[in-house]
Structures are given as structure tokens and as C-alpha cells.
Amino acid sequence: MSATQVAPPWAARILVADDDPVMRAFLVELLRDEGCAVVEACDGVEASRRLREDSRPWEYELVITDYQMPFFNGLDLVRSIRCDEVRPPVILMSAFMDDDLAARASLDGAVAVLAKPFSVDRLMALVRGLIGPL
Predict the structure, then answer these.
(1) Is 78 within the bounds of a domain?
(2) What is the pLDDT of residues 69-89, one digit of tens each?
(3) Which uninterrupted H or E stretch holds 45?
């Protein structure tokens, strides 16, 4: 699917939050090429706002977020989602992943953690496992 094509209305709706514009663009393109409807956020604050103010927040099937972001990191985002009535699953990514961060993320509600750099095949397997075939 090219950047000018619109995802069909039944496409999986995914929120991607990463302050690195190159990584965010990579993830958005990867997921859109798989037929997903992707909404971007440049940090945890914007992601949280989108989840709460979007006209269809309950339709997010998945959130993929980086850990290390200014103001409101990925773990803060996971914690805030845990408090919401509607809780899409969250995949937390980090270039600084260690056992402690992975454990905290899991306890706070992340369904998966990925160390950067990650395998695209691993990410897509997680996405498909969480939202079904694309």
C-alpha cells in the first residue's frame, strides 16, 4: 500500500509512538504496507492525547511505543493505558532494554517488549499474534 492509498475501513488500527522520526517512519511504512491503518505520535504525550481525544479511540487494536521519549516515556504510556476503560495491547521497544525494564513493562501492562534493533519478522509475528492476520 503506498503512502497515498487509504487503508480499508476494516484494517487494523495501530498507534505508533516514537520520538525518532526515522524509526517512526519505518514502522508506519512497514505496517501500512501490511494493510494496517496507522496513526503516528511523536512522543508519549501525543500518543496519550490521541488515545483520549481521537474520535474513535476504542478502535485502536494495538499500540507500539518506544520507551525512551521526552516528557512522557513509553512506560508512562503503558501505565496510563492500563488505567483506561479500553485497553489496547501495547508493545514496548527500547534500545536500552534490560531484564529490569522488561519486568517493569510486563508488570505495568505491556504485552511484549522488543530490544532495538529488532527483527522485523519478530515484530510482525507479535503484531499478527495480537491482532490476527493482516
Answers:
(1) yes
(2) 998 999 999 998 887 666 899
(3) helix 44-53
